[in-house]
Here is the input.
Amino acid sequence: DYLRLSGVALERKETKAAQAHMAQALDWLSKSATQEYAPAITQYARLLETKDPVQARVLLKKAASLNEPVALYLLGTQTLKGTPQDPADPARGLELLYRAQKQEYAPAMVVIAQLLYEGAGIEKNVIEAVLLLTRATKAEADALRKTEYEATLAAWVGKLTDDEKKALQARLAQEASGK
Here is the structure.
């Protein structure tokens, strides 16, 4: 219940009572976080990022250890790039992103697809990138992000060579047949 109530308080952040609601939301999230509720731990970490980045990262690590996909994604992207507290660790960052991807968390899938498309830190594979971005587009619930993913997907497919397009069609046919 704390998480639901904190969401209500956070939605009211633009009213005159914003500070009181934010304090109440932080208190509720803190209570939920101490009860090992991973989504609350993640939300609490996100709220603390600017105020206390070290504590926020500790909380993200805790939520990631509970296999919470948003925390895995956030920690994975931070770990890929590094932070003032921790140096970049691309292998660990990818591992975290792959764990979020396994849960069909679209933003993590998009980051991995981008890395595959560019060959940044992992072997370049435009076909796998297109397939993964297609899955991310289907998994995404947010309409704006879904539209962004579709635009990126169209741009990527438009740049494929004829051989890559044939390979993509073969993979799509293979996946459609369940193999």
User: Anything to note?
Assistant: The mean pLDDT is 87. Residues 18-34 form the longest helix (17 residues). The chain has ten helices and no strands. The CA atoms of residues 158 and 165 lie 9 Å apart.
